[in-house]
Amino acid sequence: MRFIEMVFLIALVLAAGIRPARASEPELSLQPLLAGADCEDVPGLVGDWTTDGDMTGSWTVQKMSNGLYRLFEKPPQPDTSNRSAFDICVAHFGGYLFFDATGQMLNPAGTAPIAGDDGLPFWIPAHFIGRLSISDGAIRFELLDDGWLDNALQSRRVQLAHVCLDNDGCFLVASTAELKRFVVAFETDPEAFSYLEEFDRVVVSFSLVPGTFPALATFRV
Fold first, then answer.
1. What is the largest CA-CA distance in the chain?
2. Which of the 8 DSSP states describes residue 181?
3. What single string gives the DSSP state of each residue in 109-147?
4. Per-residue CA distances from 213 to 123, 127, 207, 208, 218 (Å)
5. In angstroms, rounded to a whole number, what is the distance separating the alpha carbons of residues 125 and 141?
6. Angle, alpha carbons 168-172-178 (nearest 5°)
7. Using an 8 Å Cβ cutoff, are 59 and 47 in contact?
8. CA nearest to 74, candidates 48, 99, 95
9. CB-based contacts of 124: which residues, under 8 Å, 6+ apart?
10. What DSSP string runs through 71-100?
């Protein structure tokens, strides 16, 4: 199941009391890791990006007035379909940069959120949490891996408030304070934040041949 699809299935999953069978997926939390005053200014996130991962395609990150960043899908050509988006809060804890991302849908113009997906009786925002690394040419979202967490909860290596559904996986229901203590305690564990979504920056360049108009080209860093 694609990462994006999980965001918009969360309401149906909770209502039905099931979780789709899968291998490793990003863990879902019903409470935020970061919010409000936690959010830091990280200008390196802003720009155009592309990925070949589960979120394959072209994306843009913009800074919002409330301190969040919005990562939203860019269709290959203008169309009238809604766009997938994530509102992201970023902050330092321990020795790492962490993020909290909530999924939503934007209207075709990409300017306004849609309250819920068509056909869903209610809307529950799911939080995706993990580490974030930024370089000049790439950003890496290292999400909390649900397979690792399920094993850690069963072995009691991790003790976080959660709800498990028919042994098919667990949703975190821990408080924000608990989540913050958890990510600091396991921030260096190579398996904990092992579900990777990596984006390459798209750079626009102009080439000028004498007597012609500039040629526009885009490429990954």
1. 71
2. H
3. TSSSEESS-TT-SS----EEEEEEEE-SSEEEEEEPBHH
4. 49, 47, 9, 7, 16
5. 19
6. 150
7. no
8. 48
9. 10, 11, 14, 30
10. EEEE-SS--SS-EEEEEEEEEEETTEEEEE
Higher pLDDT residue, 216 or 24? 24
CA dihedral for 211, 213, 219, 221, sign (positive or negative): positive
Identify the burial level of 196 via C-beta atoms within 10 angstroms of its C-beta, where 0-12 means exposed, 13-18 middle and 19 or more buried: middle
**Are 201 and 49 in contact, with CB atoms under 8 Å apart?**
yes
Among 182, 168, 84, which residue's Cα sits nearest to residue 130? 182
In contact, 33 and 92? CB cutoff 8 Å: no
Query: 163, 173 in Cβ contact below 8 A?
Result: yes
Alpha-carbon distance 86 to 122, whole Å? 18
Tokens at 168, concatenated: 């098919």
79-85, long-range: CB < 8 A, 24+ apart: 79/108, 80/108, 81/108, 82/106, 82/107, 82/108, 82/114, 83/107, 83/108, 83/110, 84/4, 84/7, 85/110, 85/113
133 within 8 A of 126, measured Cβ to Cβ: no
Residues in a beta bridge with 101 = 88, 128
Q: What is the pLDDT of residues 159-208, one digit of tens each?
A: 999 987 766 667 899 999 999 999 999 999 989 999 999 999 998 765 55
User: Dihedrals φ, ψ of 106, to 5°?
Assistant: -105, 160
Query: What pLDDT, on a 0 to 100 scale, did the predictor assign at position 210?
Result: 60
**pLDDT at 208 (0 to 100):** 55
Phi/psi at 167 (nearest 5 deg)? 60, 20
